[in-house]
Every structure is written in structure tokens, then in C-alpha cells.
Amino acid sequence: MEKRVVDTAVFAKRRILFVPLDWGLGHATRLVPWIEEAVRGGDEVWIGGNGRSGAWLKERFPNLPFEEAPAWALRHTGNLAWDLIKDSRAYRRSLRADRLWATEIVNRLQLTHLVSDHRLGLRAQGAKATTVHHVLVIHQLTLALPFLWRWPVLMQGVSLTLWALLRPYWSSFQELWIPDTGQAGTALAPHLSMLPWVKDGPRWSTARDQRGRWPRFRYLGWRSRFEGMSPKITEYTGDAWPEESAILVVLSGPEPARSRFEALVIAQWESWGKAQGDQASLGDRPSVLWLVRGLPGSSMNTDGMPPIKGLMAWESPDDHTMIMLLSKAEWIVSRAGYSSCMDYACLRSWWPDRTRPWRICTVYARGHSEQAYLGHRLKRMGQADFRRESTFDLREAWLNRGKFTFTYAFTSSPLESNESSHFV
User: Fold this and answer.
1) Interior/surface letters 94-103, b for 16+ CB within 10 angstroms, e for the rest
2) In a domain, 353, yes or no
3) pLDDT tens digit string along 318-357?
4) In which domain, by residue range, is 16 found?
5) Confidence (pTM)
């Protein structure tokens, strides 16, 4: 596996709080490499958050102090884009709650750095705030707009008309960390992470605007919680891994979309099994379905799950177990979330000698235009199958898995092309 070179000395003896947004676990999982680097550098580190993403960080870093962040007032009813439009007042209330909480926590903990993943309001105010380095982790410099994700150039152009709405939030941070390569030929989501006038450059601005109008934009390469791990794990002591083929379904994202997709997959797996018993000609059904539920808790828990043959469920597997599931699965089904796809790209880069080819199917959750753009792009490139949740059929997608092979990978560490470590 490729080793990243990180200068931890630049992060010496600082007081840092990392806080992700609670819209899926991806915002929390991709903070892991930065948190670990800060800990290795000897800094005082806190983690914060709320909901499932906060619970995941607490479980992942049990020895770090945890601060409970305000829960967002915006209710996700099924279509994220429509929720943001119809309940904009709740969104603004959430931003204000984050600002008040950030101001209080900065003063109480005497922080020097506050790192927010997609929480645009997490910016302290007052005299003390001027001494704190505010960082925003974000992969969408242009917004993924509904109905336009099939035409990414048009989507990007229309999205730029909304810059007047984004600029006040961005300008309140000293830095924007973008977990992508910053090069159109290798970027995972170039129409989201790169601005139109950036031409294969590692960064747009190398310093903050003197008048404070713009933060420093930094492309830091793909990041994954699996960095530094070996895929050849032997510590797992649970049930024996089956030798036959297995489907791995990774659930993520906000409710109720997560639970809705879980119910759909379980129902189709059970129906497929019954049909297999009735008609031997259907054949080709794998022996087992592994379901990662994305619910932080015990490493393996089937309580409350229907007793269906071949179904094994994990609430929130640890990194070692997750590596084993990804290594043994013949076919992976997940949302086309940016962090999920980034994990696959990193693993594909670090583990080119995997016995089986990477077969991935991404499923678009209604109203999540970012997932639609990324899943559609990967399908056009022949990297992964892409299907709508409303028409998703587990058996049909399984039979078509051979049409796509995930080969996305970087040839060298993205950090090697940067001028310095990403911590300032």
C-alpha cells in the first residue's frame, strides 16, 4: 500500500476540534486521516458532532473528548433539494445555532483550530474568534443541481449564478479543504470540486485574499479512513467467511432514505430466494448478502432483522471488518456518495492485486443530485453501474454486474504534488 508522507510538525501543540455534518456517515469517516495526523503530532484534539455521524466518531475515537453539537432543525422528508427550498428558515436556524455553539466552544476550550465538514455555519464570532483558524472541508464548490446532473457543464454554469449565496459562508473560513486531486484528468468529481477557470492546477488561490473576501482553496487529494491499513487482515474472529460469492450492500445517508433503501434490499433478497426455490432455472443467486446498516453500535448485530436465509447484518463494522467485507465481496451496492466512492478509489489504488475485479453498483437517492451526478459519471466511464432507487432490482443488477469494472485509481499520492502539508 502506498505510504503518504505527512509533516506532522506543522500541527504542533495546537487545540483542534473536528465537527462533521450529520447527513450520512461520510462526512465523519473522511475526517479520520486528519484526526489521526493531529493526534500523532501531539496536539490536543476534540471531536464533535451529533446524531449518527457524531456517534460514529465517538465509537471510532473512544479516547478523545467529545462535544455534542446542535442537531440541525432541517427535517429530511425524502427529497433533499425540495427540503432545502421549502424549509429554508429551518436551515438558517441551524446555521445560527452552529455559530452560537462555535463561539461558546471556542472560548471554553481555547481552541486554535476549528475544522468543519460541510457545516457552513460553524464559525465562531467575537474577539476570540479572530485568533482561531477556521477550516471548511467541502467537495462541492459548484452545486449539483436537480434535473441538470446529466449535463455537468451546463449544471456547473448554472450553479455559478448562485455564488452570491455561497460567498458569505465561504469567506468566513480561512481555508477550504477539498478532498480531490484538483486535476481534471484524475478528479473524482471535477464538475463539483473544480471551478471552471481552474485548468489542471493543484489549487485556485495559494493565500487568503488580503481583504478577507476569499479563503484559501486547497486540493488535498483523496482521503479515506482506511489509510495505512493492510487489506490482508486476519484479526476477524466472527463467523467464517463463505467461500461462495457474496453481495455487499452498504447503507448510508440521512433518514428516511437510508431505512427505505434497507427495506427495499431486504424485501428483494427474500423474494429472490423464494423465486429461486420455486424455479431452479433462475439460478445464479449468490449464497449470502452482507448488509452494512450504517448505524453505529455493536460490531455485529442482527437483533430486529428478519430471519432470512443468507442475510448477515452489521450495524457499524470497525475498519478491519469493513476491509474484509470489501475484500471478500464479489459485488458492492451502495449510494453514490462522494466519501463512499472516494473510499473505493483509494482502496483500488492501494490494492491493485485484488483477486476479484471491483464490481460496484451505485443507487441514486431521490433529491440527492450530487449522488446522481457522480453515479451517472461513473456509469458513462464504465466504472460502475448506476440505478435509481425507484426502479432498482437487486437480481437484475446482479446479473448485469459484469458490464462494469471499477478501475479508478491515482498513480501517486496526491499529497506529493502539494507544496507542503495541508495543515497550516
Assistant:
1) bbebbbebbb
2) yes
3) 888 888 888 888 899 999 999 999 999 888 887 766 667 8
4) 8-227+413-417
5) 0.85
